[in-house]
Amino acid sequence: MEKKLKFREDGTFVIVQFSDVEFIDAEDRDPETPLLDSITKATMERIIAIEKPDLVVFAGDVTASERCKSPLQSFRSAVAVAEESRVPWAAVFGNHDSEGNLPRNRMHEEQLLHTYCVAKADPQGVSGAGNYVLTVDDQKGNAAASLFFLDSGDYSQISAIGGYDWIRRDQIEWYAAESRQLAERNGGMPLPALAFFHIPLPEYDEVWRTKVCEGHCNDWISSPRVNSGMFAAMVEMGDVMGTFVGHDHANDYCGMLHGIRLCYGRSTRYVSYEDGVRKDKFPTGARVIRLTAGDRQFETWIRQRDGLVAELPVHEPDAH
């Protein structure tokens, strides 16, 4: 039986986004690994207890699979906090999830076996693993919002280009078709939507350079070198209000571009390493998103591992 997501009686729906938790079922030789896993788990437990979310999203790099004895066990350990808290959850995958000996479609199959997972099986003929859409119903049982989950891949399959992978054309066509169907069921109006994937779109660089943003940008914006048109499709469909990614651990900013709010999460495991030494530039934590039924907007903030809401700097675009 399909598991339903529903707005609360007060009309709100709260999502907690954990990014880059990178659990490792070790044969890892780094003595810090078990400690980091336990700190990350405690961070997630605390934030879930404070925010009491209606949905938890793991926004990629759920495991550091290349360093894992068992990527599947690492995945199970990562999502155990949501399972033990009995909170509905869903995951997308990042580049580190498929660096080990386990294909990402097997990891997607694994998440579908969990009791509180609300993800769906992949559509036929669509690239990647972990492409699905969920709806959130209002009190009358009508879909009032949609949540798109997309596989942004790992590394470019074209050696002459290199760098990170991109959302493929068939995925964009799938998204547009789903968006169109949801709008038709909504009386022809685009259904308010959010989109989750791991690797930031090239437009994340544009919004930081050209618009007022809130938050930090301490990493390179590690977008693919090819712009496959996902952002243009979302602008054209008119449904997506915000996109949410991970990947660049020391970035946690949000900015508005052409009516869509481009947001990083807050890295949940670590923020940065310099010369092999962990040097977090700010506390780890999670992004929190609050939707309200009937509104074409959302609220969002960063909840830190210490339980506080982060005070984020305002970034003004370069005048040049």
Automatic annotation (TrEMBL):
Q: Name one Pfam family in it.
A: Metallophos
Q: Which top-level group of life is the source organism from?
A: Bacteria
Q: Quote the SUPFAM superfamilies the UniProt record gives.
A: Metallo-dependent phosphatases
All residue ranges annotated as the Calcineurin-like phosphoesterase domain in the record: 41-249
For this entry, the protein name equals: Metallophosphoesterase family protein
Q: Which organism is it from?
A: Paenibacillus alba
